[in-house]
Write the structure tokens for this entry.
Amino acid sequence: MTLTTEHMPGLASETIGIWVAAGSRDESAETAGSTHFLEHMLFKGTGSRDAKTIAAAFDRTGGDSNAITAKELTCYYSRCLVTDLPNITGLLVDMVSNSQLDVEEFERERGVIIEELAMSADDPGDVLFDDFDSLVFGSHSLARPVGATKDQIRVLGHHTVIDHYQSTYIPPRLVIAAAGGATHEEVLAMVEDALAEAGLGSRADVWSGAGTGDAASVAKGSHLGGAARVRPEFHSGKSHTVKDIEQLGIMLGCEGLPEGDDDRFIYSVMLTMLGGGMSSRLFQSVREERGLAYAVNCVASQFTDTGTFGIYAGCTAENAQAVVDLAVSEWDRLAQETPSQFELDEIVSQLSGSMVLGLESSAAR
């Protein structure tokens, strides 16, 4: 297990999260949906707290508490006052380590998740991005929606989720991160007290991950079934989904860079220049100069071994071809023409300012 903290003097609040090195890409076709289902279930009760007690404990702080399931990780987090941090730390550790996964709660939550997926199916943006991933990643697990499909959730077994919990929620796969008004020593003491109360073994074993693997293999993705993550093959093609809505959502994309790539900073400048703000080339040419779309921007997803890059636009059907033509034109221009030093300086200033302003938030840190 790893603990990383940052002390931000003067803050009365703290953001703390427990990150699990397991996401939807680590599921098989038979276990699809387990990661997201498990995220829901951890709020439904532990050996010492029922669902209502957990909800009340979070609400009592007046802060922001939630969970996220992504394709390569899961996170449970809370922003609270420093004075509430001991209780919240204990609560999060208890949820992650001692969830009961009650079968009645499981069946009830199955319906909640199906409703969540139905809501996502009504969101054209969600449908578009899911369709894009399905097209470019083919039969790979990255192609599947994070929450799986309604049909997969209907047949997902209780014991499948229990097995997923027992095999993935173990110390070597856990990172606890905290930032705010508490010092590292204070957070460390709270975490160790919570771990001891949760019965996770000796402190030395918890921090070293003794007997359960090594952190390096987890970071590389060699953490489920003893096998490393398999890099997907990237596919080209076209996909079209018909929805009874006013606008047409368009995505033009290609393979992008993985996280940590040596060219990631150049990549960030390129994304911002092409479609990362009101002064970006796409925003100016598509929206400001021609009024063809309200939303137009670049999007990127980065994973440990691959990534995607895309241009997204939302417009009426009659404007779609003109938007596509302009997007392709700007894409080609970026590849063929060297940008001016002035434009580069503007982008670097934008990215630098955004980064510094973002780091004033304990949640971002």
Observations:
- The longest strand covers residues 307-315.
- The chain has two domains: 2-219, 248-358.
- Confidence is low (pLDDT under 50) at residues 209-227.
- The chain has 14 helices and eight strands.
